Amino acid sequence: MSGSRKAAFLDRDGVINVDYGYVSAWENFEFLPGAAAALQALYRAGYQLVVVSNQSGIGRGFYTEHDLMTLNREISIHLRDEFDTHISGFYHCPHHPTEALGLLRMVCDCRKPAPGMLLRAARELDLELSESLLVGDKSSDILAGRAAGVRRMFKVGDPLNQNYAATDTETVSALSEVPGRLITRAN
Ligand SMILES: [Mg+2]
Ligand SMILES: [Zn+2]
Hints:
Helices cover 32% and strands 17% of the residues. The chain contains 6 helices and 6 strands; from the N terminus they run βαβααβαβαββα.
């Protein structure tokens, strides 16, 4: 499992956009301050941008795969037109082990903290996980990154209120802080 390109794996809700809960339409998609510019900075620094998002709202029947694809397209168009920035892939898990309906109710290998979405992206997009980074706002994001072998991880949260201590994870107040961290720790 090794590719040639480095990726920035990005959780969506609470990292890129305001987490209103089950956001499924562009009208309810609100970029967090500085998030789009941070995506641009990561893109310009040579990272493939890959969104990895648990979307059990699909399994729960709140919205459809088509709704999510429509939203992803809007996000892509906005970032392309306003920031000259390309998202290499959107990956989502529609499942939930107990709350999803029908065939989507299952224990899958893609719902974070499982690493399935990252591993699939690495395969499909030729990514080198050990050169990649991840930004998430929940411990399940970090656990998925760790299980996949992502080298550097950032957890969005209040630095003064972290009950999450891990030596492989840096705390940031927002995605907008991440590009600066990469510069200050040159490697
Ligand atoms: Mg999140
Ligand atoms: Zn899944």
